[in-house]
C-alpha cells in the first residue's frame, strides 16, 4: 500500500488497537447490557483522572463491542450511526477520511461503499485515508501518511481518488490542553480547516462530516457551512459519551466552491 510523507498537525479519530476479528457490520445498540461494573483501584503512580478514564474504558459497552467485532476503536459506531441516519456512505461513493488513525471509520465505510466489490451488481466505491502517523493497512482502502494542510494536499488526494470526492469526513481532535475553552477553540479551528479542504475536493452534491465540540465558538463554522451546503445538521450519536461535549456536523448537498448563501 502506498505511503506518502507528511508533516504538520492534525488529530486522529477513534481510539484503541485493531482487534483480530473481522467486523461483523451488526448495528445493534451497546446500551442496556447488564454486565457487572469493573472497579479499578488507584495504583501508585497513577493519577485519579487516569484511573477514572481506565474504569470508564473497561465499563464502556462500545469499547467491548469494538473489541468483539474487530473494530479499531469505539469511534467506529459513531460514523455507523451517522450514516444510518443520513445515508452518505453508499455503494460507489468516493470518500476521504481526514486524520483517519487508527482506522475505525474506514473499517465501517469499506463495506458500505462496496470498496471490495462484494455487493454484486453495485457500484464499487473508493476510500482514501490520510493521517500524520502511519496507519496499519485496511483491506479495500488506500491509506497515506500526509498532512492535509499542505498546499498541494488537495491535488494529491484528487489524484489518488481519480477525481473529486462524494464524502469528506473527519473525526480529528486537537491535542488536549486541559483547558476547556482553549480545546474548544482548537477543535473548531481544525474543523474549519477540514471544511476548507472539503471545499477543494468535494463534488457538487457532496457531504462533509466532522466532529466539533459544543462551546459557543462554532457559530462562524455553522455560518460558513450553511453558505456552502443545502442542509447542515448537528447530531450527537448514541455512541458519543453523554458526558462529552462532542457533537458532529453533517453538511449535505455541497453547492460548489464560490457558492454564496441565499
Order of strands side by side in the largest beta sheet? 3-2-1-4-5-7-6
The CATH class of the domain at 74-254 is identified as Alpha Beta
The CATH H-level homologous superfamily of the domain at 74-254: Vaccinia Virus protein VP39
Number of strands: 7
Q: In the CATH classification, which architecture of the domain at 74-254 applies?
A: 3-Layer(aba) Sandwich
CATH topology of the domain at 74-254: Rossmann fold
Determine the strand fraction and express it as a percent band.
15-25%
Helix content: 25-40%
On the 0 to 100 scale, the average pLDDT is 80
Secondary-structure element series: HHHEHEEHEHEHEE
Major sheet details: 7 strands, mixed
Which value, in Å, is the CA radius of gyration? 18 Å
So what's the overall shape?
globular
Which segments are poorly predicted (pLDDT under 50) over 5 or more consecutive residues? 1-41
